[in-house]
């Protein structure tokens, strides 16, 4: 069913409301018979997308509410999450950063709601990979990740004034297949073995815009 504007050729063109054969509904802008411009698409499953369309595909800025309660707000290209966006997971975790081909890809920050810990670093095809920093309540880890886990040389920096240098040695684990919806990262990832090498003092650092206090 369609209720809205049409052009001289009788195509849906302008603003209109439509009920699709599968029970989904769309209200928004059309161009020559296709969803183009701003609109809101309600899925029969309970999901909802509101944002920009180009020739029937999500394209531009938009927000998608998934049936599990998660939400993505950001850039879309050709129906895929691509560009910059924020995903709020059903468990309260968040990822803010770059996306490519529907997956976390590039630079991004993942925040674990329960612990408040953050992963700040690189992602490849939805997985933590490359240089990164894990920030915990009173310490942080700087190193590299491979296939979602730390690997190789790195260091722990503790707030009470020292650094522990070492390396991560890990065994390969079989990976499961991914579903269409983004799934939050596991709370307790498979821990590789940390081998400490030495402990040093913190590297002194003074912010550029602050002067040392007067004697």
From TrEMBL:
Lineage, opening ranks: Eukaryota, Metazoa, Chordata, Craniata, Vertebrata
Main location per the UniProt record: cytoplasm
Subcellular location: Cytoplasm, Cytoskeleton, Flagellum axoneme
Gene that specifies this protein: Rsph1
InterPro entries xref list: MORN
Gene Ontology process terms (BP): axoneme assembly; meiotic cell cycle; spermatid development
Alphabetical UniProt keywords: Cell projection, Cilium, Cytoplasm, Cytoskeleton, Flagellum, Meiosis, Repeat
Protein source organism: Oxyruncus cristatus (sharpbill)
Protein's name in the database: Radial spoke head 1 homolog
Chain intervals with Basic and acidic residues compositional bias: 1-14
């Amino acid at each position: 069913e369609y209720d809205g504007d049409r052009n001289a050729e009788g195509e849906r063109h302008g603003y209109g409301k439509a009920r699709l054969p599968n029970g989904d509904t769309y209200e928004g802008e059309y161009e020559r018979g296709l969803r183009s411009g701003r609109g809101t698409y309600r899925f029969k499953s309970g999901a909802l997308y509101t944002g920009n369309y180009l020739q029937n595909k999500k394209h531009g800025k938009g927000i998608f509410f998934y049936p599990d309660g998660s939400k993505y707000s950001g850039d879309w290209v050709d129906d895929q999450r691509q560009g910059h966006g924020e995903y709020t997971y059903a468990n309260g975790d968040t990822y803010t950063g770059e996306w490519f081909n529907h997956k976390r890809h590039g630079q991004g920050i993942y925040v674990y709601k329960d612990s408040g810990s953050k992963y700040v670093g690189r992602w490849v095809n939805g997985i933590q990979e490359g240089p990164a920093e894990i920030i915990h309540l009173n310490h942080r880890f700087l190193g590299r990740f491979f296939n979602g886990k730390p690997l190789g040389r790195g260091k722990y920096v503790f707030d009470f004034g020292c650094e522990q240098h070492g390396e991560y040695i890990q065994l390969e684990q079989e990976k499961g297949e991914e579903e269409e919806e983004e799934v939050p990262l596991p709370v307790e990832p498979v821990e590789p073995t940390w081998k400490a090498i030495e402990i040093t003092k913190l590297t002194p650092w003074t912010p550029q815009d602050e002067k040392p206090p007067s004697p």
